[in-house]
Write the C-alpha coordinates for this entry.
Amino acid sequence: MESNCSNCGAIITQNFCANCGQKKFKRIDKKYLFDELQYTVLHTNKGFLYSVKRLIQNPGKTARTFVDGNRVNHYKPILLVFVLSGISAFISFKLIGFNHIMESYYEQQKLASPMMKDFNTIWSTYNSLIMLLLIPLFSVFTFLFFRKWGHNFYEHVVMNAYILAFYTICSIVLVYPILYLVKDNTATFFTITSYSILFVPAAMSWFYKGFYPEKKWLPIIGRVLLVNISLFLVYLIFVIVVGIVIAIKLGPEGMKYLTPQ
Protein backbone atom coordinates (compact mmCIF):
# COMPACT_ATOMS: atom_id res chain seq x y z
CA MET A 1 0.00 0.00 0.00
CA GLU A 2 1.29 3.45 -0.94
CA SER A 3 1.77 6.14 1.69
CA ASN A 4 3.46 9.50 2.01
CA CYS A 5 6.89 9.75 3.64
CA SER A 6 6.62 11.42 7.05
CA ASN A 7 9.99 13.11 6.43
CA CYS A 8 9.90 14.50 2.87
CA GLY A 9 6.33 13.79 1.70
CA ALA A 10 7.32 11.59 -1.26
CA ILE A 11 5.20 8.56 -2.07
CA ILE A 12 6.50 5.32 -0.52
CA THR A 13 5.74 2.05 -2.33
CA GLN A 14 8.22 -0.19 -0.49
CA ASN A 15 9.51 -0.34 3.10
CA PHE A 16 11.76 2.73 2.69
CA CYS A 17 11.40 6.09 0.96
CA ALA A 18 13.29 6.08 -2.35
CA ASN A 19 13.91 9.83 -1.99
CA CYS A 20 15.36 10.21 1.54
CA GLY A 21 15.64 6.68 2.97
CA GLN A 22 13.07 7.22 5.73
CA LYS A 23 11.44 3.97 6.85
CA LYS A 24 7.75 3.62 6.10
CA PHE A 25 5.61 4.76 9.02
CA LYS A 26 4.70 2.06 11.48
CA ARG A 27 2.87 2.54 14.75
CA ILE A 28 4.99 1.97 17.87
CA ASP A 29 4.08 -1.34 19.46
CA LYS A 30 5.68 -4.21 21.41
CA LYS A 31 7.60 -5.48 18.37
CA TYR A 32 8.94 -1.99 17.64
CA LEU A 33 10.30 -1.63 21.19
CA PHE A 34 11.86 -5.12 21.09
CA ASP A 35 13.59 -4.35 17.79
CA GLU A 36 14.81 -1.03 19.19
CA LEU A 37 16.25 -2.81 22.24
CA GLN A 38 18.09 -5.24 19.97
CA TYR A 39 19.52 -2.35 17.98
CA THR A 40 20.60 -0.47 21.12
CA VAL A 41 22.37 -3.42 22.76
CA LEU A 42 23.97 -5.36 19.92
CA HIS A 43 22.50 -4.14 16.62
CA THR A 44 21.58 -7.78 16.03
CA ASN A 45 19.21 -6.61 13.32
CA LYS A 46 22.29 -5.33 11.47
CA GLY A 47 24.16 -8.62 11.43
CA PHE A 48 26.22 -8.92 14.63
CA LEU A 49 25.45 -12.58 15.22
CA TYR A 50 25.51 -13.27 11.48
CA SER A 51 29.02 -11.78 11.18
CA VAL A 52 30.29 -13.65 14.24
CA LYS A 53 28.97 -16.92 12.82
CA ARG A 54 30.56 -16.28 9.41
CA LEU A 55 33.87 -15.30 11.02
CA ILE A 56 34.01 -18.55 12.97
CA GLN A 57 33.31 -20.52 9.78
CA ASN A 58 35.77 -18.72 7.49
CA PRO A 59 37.19 -15.31 8.51
CA GLY A 60 39.04 -14.65 5.25
CA LYS A 61 36.09 -15.45 3.02
CA THR A 62 33.82 -13.31 5.22
CA ALA A 63 36.16 -10.33 4.89
CA ARG A 64 36.53 -10.83 1.13
CA THR A 65 32.75 -10.87 0.73
CA PHE A 66 32.50 -7.57 2.62
CA VAL A 67 35.40 -5.91 0.77
CA ASP A 68 33.95 -7.00 -2.59
CA GLY A 69 30.69 -5.20 -1.81
CA ASN A 70 28.24 -7.75 -0.36
CA ARG A 71 27.65 -5.86 2.89
CA VAL A 72 23.93 -5.72 3.56
CA ASN A 73 23.89 -8.62 6.07
CA HIS A 74 27.23 -7.86 7.70
CA TYR A 75 27.94 -5.94 10.88
CA LYS A 76 30.33 -3.08 10.22
CA PRO A 77 33.85 -4.52 10.86
CA ILE A 78 35.24 -1.58 12.88
CA LEU A 79 32.16 -1.53 15.11
CA LEU A 80 32.29 -5.32 15.36
CA VAL A 81 35.84 -5.29 16.69
CA PHE A 82 34.97 -2.45 19.11
CA VAL A 83 32.13 -4.50 20.63
CA LEU A 84 34.20 -7.70 20.82
CA SER A 85 37.21 -5.88 22.31
CA GLY A 86 34.96 -4.39 24.97
CA ILE A 87 33.59 -7.83 25.83
CA SER A 88 37.14 -9.24 25.92
CA ALA A 89 38.39 -6.45 28.20
CA PHE A 90 35.47 -6.95 30.59
CA ILE A 91 36.09 -10.71 30.84
CA SER A 92 39.87 -10.41 31.25
CA PHE A 93 39.73 -7.56 33.77
CA LYS A 94 36.56 -8.23 35.77
CA LEU A 95 35.99 -11.98 35.56
CA ILE A 96 39.50 -13.40 35.29
CA GLY A 97 41.53 -10.64 36.95
CA PHE A 98 44.39 -10.58 34.43
CA ASN A 99 46.09 -7.56 35.98
CA HIS A 100 46.31 -9.02 39.51
CA ILE A 101 47.46 -12.44 38.26
CA MET A 102 50.20 -10.97 36.05
CA GLU A 103 51.40 -8.62 38.79
CA SER A 104 51.56 -11.58 41.19
CA TYR A 105 53.53 -13.66 38.68
CA TYR A 106 56.16 -10.96 38.09
CA GLU A 107 56.54 -10.35 41.81
CA GLN A 108 57.21 -14.06 42.34
CA GLN A 109 59.73 -14.33 39.49
CA LYS A 110 61.74 -11.15 40.20
CA LEU A 111 63.25 -11.40 36.73
CA ALA A 112 61.81 -8.40 34.95
CA SER A 113 62.30 -4.71 35.62
CA PRO A 114 59.38 -2.73 37.08
CA MET A 115 58.93 -1.10 33.67
CA MET A 116 58.61 -4.46 31.90
CA LYS A 117 56.30 -5.73 34.65
CA ASP A 118 53.99 -2.75 34.20
CA PHE A 119 54.16 -2.89 30.42
CA ASN A 120 53.50 -6.64 30.16
CA THR A 121 50.70 -6.48 32.73
CA ILE A 122 48.93 -3.72 30.79
CA TRP A 123 49.51 -5.50 27.47
CA SER A 124 48.14 -8.83 28.77
CA THR A 125 45.13 -7.30 30.48
CA TYR A 126 44.05 -4.99 27.67
CA ASN A 127 45.43 -7.00 24.74
CA SER A 128 42.37 -6.74 22.51
CA LEU A 129 41.85 -3.03 23.14
CA ILE A 130 45.53 -2.24 22.49
CA MET A 131 45.50 -4.28 19.28
CA LEU A 132 42.36 -2.39 18.26
CA LEU A 133 44.24 0.90 18.56
CA LEU A 134 47.14 -0.59 16.60
CA ILE A 135 45.06 -1.68 13.59
CA PRO A 136 46.37 1.24 11.45
CA LEU A 137 49.96 0.17 12.26
CA PHE A 138 49.23 -3.47 11.41
CA SER A 139 47.62 -2.29 8.20
CA VAL A 140 50.77 -0.41 7.15
CA PHE A 141 52.76 -3.65 7.22
CA THR A 142 50.10 -5.92 5.71
CA PHE A 143 49.62 -3.38 2.91
CA LEU A 144 53.39 -3.19 2.42
CA PHE A 145 53.89 -6.96 2.11
CA PHE A 146 50.62 -7.77 0.31
CA ARG A 147 50.53 -4.63 -1.87
CA LYS A 148 50.99 -6.55 -5.15
CA TRP A 149 47.82 -8.56 -4.50
CA GLY A 150 45.51 -5.71 -5.38
CA HIS A 151 44.05 -4.07 -2.25
CA ASN A 152 44.62 -0.57 -0.91
CA PHE A 153 45.56 0.53 2.60
CA TYR A 154 41.98 1.22 3.70
CA GLU A 155 40.86 -2.23 2.60
CA HIS A 156 43.71 -3.61 4.70
CA VAL A 157 42.32 -1.68 7.69
CA VAL A 158 39.04 -3.56 7.21
CA MET A 159 40.90 -6.86 6.75
CA ASN A 160 42.88 -6.35 9.96
CA ALA A 161 39.67 -5.46 11.81
CA TYR A 162 38.29 -8.83 10.76
CA ILE A 163 41.51 -10.60 11.78
CA LEU A 164 41.37 -9.00 15.22
CA ALA A 165 37.66 -9.80 15.54
CA PHE A 166 38.37 -13.45 14.75
CA TYR A 167 41.31 -13.53 17.19
CA THR A 168 39.14 -11.97 19.92
CA ILE A 169 36.32 -14.46 19.35
CA CYS A 170 38.79 -17.35 19.65
CA SER A 171 40.21 -15.83 22.84
CA ILE A 172 36.77 -15.43 24.39
CA VAL A 173 35.53 -18.89 23.41
CA LEU A 174 38.69 -21.02 23.71
CA VAL A 175 41.42 -19.32 25.76
CA TYR A 176 39.56 -17.40 28.47
CA PRO A 177 37.67 -20.44 29.87
CA ILE A 178 40.99 -22.28 30.29
CA LEU A 179 42.63 -19.24 31.90
CA TYR A 180 39.72 -18.91 34.29
CA LEU A 181 40.18 -22.52 35.41
CA VAL A 182 43.93 -22.11 36.03
CA LYS A 183 43.91 -18.53 37.37
CA ASP A 184 45.11 -19.71 40.79
CA ASN A 185 48.23 -21.22 39.24
CA THR A 186 50.15 -18.16 38.07
CA ALA A 187 52.92 -20.13 36.32
CA THR A 188 50.48 -22.12 34.19
CA PHE A 189 48.42 -18.99 33.58
CA PHE A 190 51.49 -17.11 32.34
CA THR A 191 52.58 -20.01 30.10
CA ILE A 192 49.18 -20.26 28.41
CA THR A 193 49.02 -16.49 27.97
CA SER A 194 52.52 -16.38 26.45
CA TYR A 195 51.97 -19.23 23.99
CA SER A 196 48.50 -18.07 22.94
CA ILE A 197 50.15 -15.20 21.05
CA LEU A 198 51.55 -17.81 18.65
CA PHE A 199 47.99 -18.27 17.44
CA VAL A 200 48.19 -14.85 15.73
CA PRO A 201 50.39 -15.86 12.75
CA ALA A 202 48.41 -19.10 12.38
CA ALA A 203 45.12 -17.18 12.36
CA MET A 204 46.53 -14.64 9.90
CA SER A 205 47.70 -17.39 7.53
CA TRP A 206 44.29 -19.06 7.57
CA PHE A 207 42.61 -15.68 7.10
CA TYR A 208 44.67 -14.73 4.05
CA LYS A 209 44.20 -18.17 2.49
CA GLY A 210 40.46 -17.63 2.78
CA PHE A 211 40.76 -14.08 1.47
CA TYR A 212 43.04 -15.08 -1.43
CA PRO A 213 41.93 -18.67 -2.22
CA GLU A 214 43.78 -18.56 -5.54
CA LYS A 215 47.15 -18.05 -3.80
CA LYS A 216 49.34 -20.89 -2.55
CA TRP A 217 50.12 -21.40 1.14
CA LEU A 218 53.86 -20.71 0.89
CA PRO A 219 53.72 -17.06 -0.29
CA ILE A 220 50.94 -16.39 2.23
CA ILE A 221 52.90 -17.84 5.16
CA GLY A 222 56.06 -16.01 4.03
CA ARG A 223 54.30 -12.64 3.97
CA VAL A 224 52.60 -13.29 7.31
CA LEU A 225 55.97 -14.06 8.89
CA LEU A 226 57.45 -10.84 7.47
CA VAL A 227 54.54 -8.86 8.92
CA ASN A 228 54.97 -10.42 12.37
CA ILE A 229 58.76 -10.00 12.37
CA SER A 230 58.35 -6.34 11.42
CA LEU A 231 55.83 -5.77 14.20
CA PHE A 232 58.11 -7.48 16.71
CA LEU A 233 61.00 -5.19 15.71
CA VAL A 234 58.73 -2.16 16.10
CA TYR A 235 57.79 -3.45 19.58
CA LEU A 236 61.48 -3.80 20.56
CA ILE A 237 62.31 -0.32 19.26
CA PHE A 238 59.36 1.12 21.18
CA VAL A 239 60.46 -0.53 24.46
CA ILE A 240 64.05 0.68 23.99
CA VAL A 241 62.95 4.24 23.21
CA VAL A 242 60.62 4.32 26.24
CA GLY A 243 63.45 3.03 28.43
CA ILE A 244 65.84 5.70 27.17
CA VAL A 245 63.27 8.46 27.70
CA ILE A 246 62.62 7.26 31.28
CA ALA A 247 66.36 7.07 32.00
CA ILE A 248 66.87 10.61 30.68
CA LYS A 249 63.86 12.03 32.53
CA LEU A 250 64.47 10.36 35.89
CA GLY A 251 68.25 9.98 35.86
CA PRO A 252 69.71 7.50 38.41
CA GLU A 253 66.28 6.94 39.95
CA GLY A 254 64.98 5.89 36.55
CA MET A 255 67.53 3.06 36.36
CA LYS A 256 65.82 1.35 39.27
CA TYR A 257 62.66 1.26 37.18
CA LEU A 258 64.51 -0.21 34.20
CA THR A 259 66.52 -2.96 35.87
CA PRO A 260 65.28 -6.20 37.51
CA GLN A 261 64.68 -5.92 41.24
